[in-house]
Design a protein that fits this description.
Length: 304
């Protein structure tokens, strides 16, 4: 639906939410082999995100909680990405112990979060402009790849030489990130080479993708190492949609071995936006009796 526009169209997204939310909830209950009578609380995403879509989810959640007379729990989307690392696994060693650091990387956010407990988190580094996921998608657009382009860069990068082309690493103070300068450098690099060879992108696509991905990943992991050094924390996680990127996952594991980290990555299906991460956050907030009244409002942007 959104591919022809090169990105998500908010109005189309919210309309699709309205059309499908009842069927999706019904299927979720069916697949989980449960029913509404067995539900103890309703958790929903309060922020951040597209406000139209958030309003559909929050209003549906409020209506359901009111009709069933059960607690209502609001969840911050980025907090949920972090807690995806706590989703139960058959192997207990796959779950990090506190305190831990989490590099949370998605299309709209790039953060380093220090976690003392499931509900005690502090952002110690974040992007001052564009997010890493946006850098992937915008770079893909410059290369003429269809939306969503980030996963396609990952695919082509597997066949390319990451050392062939060099892109700059922004020198941003403290633990913050910036990707706007890198995007500009990639744009100028492509324009200059296309002037000399109109087929430059087509002839070198795997190497270009591998070089772009390598630089984005190195920016992320260099800051993460700095955060570990400053805090002394060796339990390190990654989360968010970009955590599904194979280049980041592999480099993260290698960096962990070099620095004697205990590394943790959610299962692939819990990296991209998903209901499981909202549920695990709702679970911990339920234990803490952190409930909302019916006048709670969704918000496009909010700190956690």
């Amino acid at each position: 639906m959104h591919e022809q526009y090169g990105g998500v169209v908010p109005e189309l997204a919210s309309r699709a939410h309205m059309q499908h939310i009842v069927a999706v909830v019904d299927k979720a209950l069916h697949d989980a082999k449960t029913d509404l009578k067995s539900i103890n609380a309703i958790a929903f995403t309060k922020s951040p995100g597209l406000i139209g879509s958030l309003l559909v989810g929050s209003q549906f959640a409020k209506s359901l909680a009111l009709s069933m007379d059960i607690p209502l729990i609001s969840v911050h989307h980025m907090q949920a990405h972090v807690l995806a690392n706590l989703i139960p696994s058959a192997d207990p060693s796959k779950i990090p112990s506190f305190p831990f650091l989490c590099l949370t990387v998605s299309g709209g956010h790039t953060q380093i979060v220090q976690c003392a407990s499931p509900l005690d988190m502090r952002v110690i580094g974040e992007t001052i402009d564009d997010a890493a996921g946006e850098a992937f998608d915008k770079s893909a657009k410059l290369l003429g790849l269809p939306y969503p382009g980030g996963p396609l860069i990952d695919q082509y990068a597997k066949k390319g030489n990451a050392s062939r082309f060099k892109f700059p690493e922004p020198q941003i103070p403290n633990l913050n990130f910036s990707f706007s300068g890198l995007k500009t450098a990639i744009l100028y690099f492509l324009q200059e080479n296309i002037k000399e060879n109109a087929s430059f992108i087509a002839e070198n696509l795997p190497d270009i993708c591998a070089s772009i991905q390598q630089r984005i990943v190195s920016i992320l992991l260099n800051k993460l190492k700095k955060a570990s050094d400053q805090t002394g924390i060796k339990n390190i996680c990654i989360a968010g949609g970009v955590a599904a990127n194979s280049g980041l996952r592999n480099a993260f594991e290698e960096t962990g071995k070099k620095n004697n980290w205990q590394t943790f990555i959610p299962k692939f299906e819990y990296c991209t936006d998903n209901a499981g991460m909202i549920a695990i956050t709702g679970y911990y907030k339920y234990l803490a009796k952190n409930f909302e009244s019916l006048d709670v409002s969704a918000s496009a942007r909010a700190e956690f």
